[in-house]
Each structure stands twice: as C-alpha cells, then as structure tokens.
Amino acid sequence: MVSKSFPDGIASSRDKPRLLDRVRGEIRRLHYSPKTEKAYVSWIRQFIVHQGKRHPETMGEAEVVDFLSFLAIDRKVSASTQNQALCAILFLYRRILGVEMGWPDNIERPQRPSRIPVVLTPGEVKALLSRMSGTTLLMAGLLYGSGLRRLECCRLRVKDLDFGRREITVRDAKGRKDRVTLLPLKVIKPLEQHLEGVRRQFQDLRAGAGYVELPYALARKYPSARREWGWQWVFPATRTYVHGESGERRRHHIHETVLQRAVHAARSAAGITKPAGCHSLRHSFATYLVEAGYDIRSVQKLLGHSDLETTMMYVHLAHVGPFRVRSPLDETI
After folding, report:
1. 254 within 8 A of 135, measured Cβ to Cβ
2. pLDDT tens digits for 193-226?
C-alpha cells in the first residue's frame, strides 16, 4: 500500500472531520473520562508522528510493534504506559477506522510488575494529618476515612453527602460505576462548617456566577440544575471561569494537584520516609479494615473493586489470621 503523508499527521483532505476530532467525538459518545480522551488523543498523535506522519490506514502490526518498542527502549516507559498507548491505537483502528484486525492478538502486551502498595500505620497517618489544615485536611481525612480516590474526593457534590446515614455516594467512579462508602463521624462537624462557607460562596450566583458543570446531557435535561445547591462542588476552586460555549461564569472543583502537594508537604514535615501519597491513604483505609476483621466482600464494595482479587491484595498486607507470621529471632531468648 502506498504511504500517504499529512502535514499535521492527523487528517487527509478526505477526512472530515479531522481524525483526532473523530476520536474525541467517539470517546465522548461512549462517555469515557476526560483523562482517557486526553491520553488517547496524545498517544495516537505520537504514534502518527513517530511513523513519519503517515496515515494510520497505511500502517498495521509492524508499525504498532515498532512504536511500542520505541516507548520501551528509547523512552523507557513503564508497562502500564505501554499498555495505555496500545489501547489508544487499537481504539483508533477498531472504533474510528473500522479496520478488521487479525494482528492484535499477536502483539504481546507488556506485563505490569507486581508492586506492594505503600501503607501507612495509624500513627503515621495521625502524624501526617496533624501537619495539614483547612480544606486539604478535610479531603485527606476522607481519603483515609472513606477510602476515596483523589479525584473522587475532588469531584464530590453536596448532594452526594448523607449526614443522616453517614454515607458518601461516589458517582461515576473508576469503571463508570457508582458506589456508597462511609462518611467518618469525625469529619461530620468540620465538613458541615466547611459547607457553610461554601454556601456563602455559592451566593456569587447573584453576581452572575455560581454555575457548575453537569455530567453528560444533564444540563439540557435539567437546565436549572447547574445553579442548584445540591449540584455544587463540596470542594470548589477559589476562582471562577467563563465557559466558552455557554458564556456562563462557572466554578470548578479544586484541582487534584492542590491536595497532592499538600499531602506530600505534610509527609515531609512529619518525617515519614515512605513514598506515600494520596493513594496511600486509600491503601491504608483498606488495610485497616482487613486487619480489623471486616468481611473482604464488604471491603471490596467500599473500595469499588470489580474483581475480588484486587481487594485480596490487602489480606496479604494485613498482619492477621494465617498471615500473622513471627520471626524466629523474636522467639529467641
């Protein structure tokens, strides 16, 4: 097949709309996350550029393997990064170009190494949280006390909190699933006080602001919902922005890097040498529950794992039952 080259590596004159715009459109139609859209578009662009800006229709297994090898050998990326790049390319061929491929099974997927998650002891968690304050302290408390992922915490809306039942509903989480988890008793009062401040901030609706982004087509189905209190972010950003399409002055949720930096700073101030981050608090939540003897299925539901095997990892980390092994040196007199 004759090679075709395109100046921008994205589209030919017959491609309307442009190739990457088609990718974006299909990803949004399937309700993939914005992060997935950004990653897939980036990998597809890199694949095309790496192959001399040839159109993907002129390429196949050999070019994909060459690109994956380049990532591993020259870029030294991890196995999970390679797999993400491969998924993006396969998405392009299957969903956008409609190419029937007989070669994907011939491509060996890189195997991710088995890593032991970083888990903090209760004492280390206490030391870390004692070095935090304000909004990020509340958020870190929810990571540890509710087992939330970092972005799940940032995206909480007021309606997702049930103080009466002491529950948090996590919407559209990883795998596009909803789940219910714990609302720790210790955070209820400070969280209520925090929401009082958020409600005062919500009054900027009177000044033409106060709108929030709604998921998918809800903005069209419920036009007034984006101005309702229940849909407001629990942890809103300090600044507003003007939405390009609607012209509305909106307020986004706090950026996840704000929480990430605060946790890292607190870890350093507490003198914790473990490479712990936000996700370590979620790992610590799960390990604590397993060590406390809670049913593994209950832990699985609280974490939102599809596969029980993923949750079983914490059983191996917990110092209980058959895993309570003592060193022979400790038994030596």
Report:
1. yes
2. 999 999 888 776 666 667 888 877 777 788 888 8
